[in-house]
Amino acid sequence: METYEGAATIEKVASLCRRRGFVFPASDIYGGIGSTYDYGHYGVLLKNNVKQRWLDAMLRERDDIVLLDSAIIQHPRTWEASGHVAGFSDPLVDCRTCKNRFRADHLDQESCPRKPSKRPGEGPECDLTEARQFNLMFQTTVGPVEEAGTRVFLRPETAQGIFLNFRNYLNVMRRRPPFGIAQIGKSFRNEITPGNFLFRLREFEQMEMEYFVPPDQAAAAFEEWVQARFDWYVRLGLDASRLRVRPHGAEELSHYSSQTSDIEYLYPIGWSELEGVANRGDFDLRQHMEHSGADLRVFDPATETHYLPHVVEPAVSVERIVLAFLVDGYAEEEVAGRQRTVLRLHPLLAPVVAAVLPLVNKGGMPELAERLYAELRASLPVEYDDSGSVGKRYRRQDEIGTPWTITIDGQTVDDETVTVRDRDSLAQDRVPLGRVRELLAHRLASSTDLSPGD
Ligand code: GAP
């Protein structure tokens, strides 16, 4: 598949996210602040589920990974050692005519703001400057006075906090390679051209794991992690035909990497990086050892020698994953002569697993519905919805991706059975009220068999 053929566009997904309370433009009442977003109730729940599934894969499906939550602002020499002060930059060109800025290496993906059918530089009035390097790190100062030595950076990746703590994990956590340190946290990049909704942001949440191995195991670990991360997406329901692994050519490798493969997803904007897996070798530990003077080597009792481990790193942002699942799950279809928009999110990602709907607000139905809601709420993310026609409520739940809706109707009052509607098949099963919790738990558990290949 070369071009995206689904119903979603970035605009439609962004509109659904706003309309249904997933994502709002930040500082909206002041006119917004470009490409920065706030996450509403369902957005927070969806992001939490993405993070939890990632943590499950790191911590519950294996036992060689531990956690870290490091500071956003680290010693400024961190970024000299890591190479970010010297090399974390993009080439920038200005147009003297329209005063817009573009990434010099992305001109083929942009359009001229004055003549959108042309690329920047191709219009008759375009007047581009020479490219100059623009460092992507946000700077600020520590303390009340701006003077020499107070300049610090907001981290552009979470990875460096892991390298700075490596010695603690050897000494305090008594870990020896192979083992990994996983971290989820905000990263900041002053992107020249952010955009495409959640795809390229200036503030985003990264999930990174640095896997430390003896040097001779790095090549195998790299292959294993590329496969493991690819499988994770497929197991959570992402269409495998919209996923591919693309190895980097030598000219595009980051300064720290000897080998990188991107897991790409076919977004409506075309094939783009979802997650990167890099073999960072011993670049980071060596740099920090040289710049700090701290000994970051590991002792190998078998050979009685010290060595610097190599590092394999899967790195992704929660937002790119969220965007991929929103695009992948988005569908528009006709049901019984009416249009519906549905988000086919995996039950383990859906913000709400089930909604309880009394058909009408009388005749004993609300009491039974509230009783069921209270019972389910204790163990599952469920929602109670009694406003509007039942058809409207189904549409609302379809749009937020709720896999099952439970309707309490007149028959429930007579025989204590309810209907359970399936978001995808639209099948409506009549089941005893007292067995709903068990049924949902069972359905959820059958969707949680996360062994590869399912
Ligand atoms: N520690 C390695 C690293 O940060 P990267 O390829 O620059 O590598 C890793 O970033 C991942 O972070 C990307 O694959 C993407 O998922 C996410 N990412 C990077 N820049 C982003 C941005 N501006 N907005 C949203 N996500 C971003």
Explain what you see:
The protein has 454 residues and is of the alpha+beta class. It contains 13 helices and 23 strands. The strands form 7 sheets. The chain has a 7-stranded mixed beta sheet with strand order 3-9-10-16-13-12-11. Strands 20-19-21-22-23 form a 5-stranded mixed beta sheet, sandwiched between helices. A hairpin with a 4-residue loop joins strand 14 and strand 15. Helix 2 crosses helix 9. It is globular.
Give the helix/strand layout.
Elements: H1 10-19, E1 23-25, E2 37-39, H2 41-60, E3 65-68, H3 77-81, H4 84-87, E4 89-94, E5 101-103, E6 132-135, E7 139-141, E8 151-153, H5 159-164, H6 166-171, E9 179-188, E10 203-213, H7 218-235, E11 243-247, E12 259-267, E13 270-281, H8 283-292, E14 298-300, E15 305-307, E16 310-317, H9 318-329, E17 330-335, E18 338-343, E19 354-358, H10 365-377, E20 382-384, H11 390-400, E21 404-408, H12 410-415, E22 417-422, E23 428-432, H13 436-446
Parallel strand pairs: 3-9, 19-20, 19-21
Antiparallel strand pairs: 1-2, 4-5, 4-6, 7-8, 9-10, 10-16, 11-12, 12-13, 13-16, 14-15, 17-18, 21-22, 22-23
Helix pairs in contact: 2-9
The structure holds glycyl-adenosine-5'-phosphate.
Glycyl-adenosine-5'-phosphate is lined by residues 157, 159, 189, 191, 200-201, 204, 206, 208, 273, 275-276, 313, 315-317, 319-320.
Keywords:
454 residues; alpha+beta; seven-stranded mixed sheet; five-stranded mixed sheet; 13 helices; 29% helix; binds glycyl-adenosine-5'-phosphate
Strand content: 25-35%
In whole angstroms, how far apart are the ends? Answer: 22 Å
| Total number of beta strands | 23
Could you say which structural class the secondary elements and strand pairing correspond to? alpha+beta
Q: What is the residue-mean pLDDT, rounded to a whole number?
A: 95
Give me the Rg, rounded.
25 Å
Helix content: 25-40%
Largest sheet: 7 strands, mixed
Q: Order of strands across the widest beta sheet?
A: 3-9-10-16-13-12-11
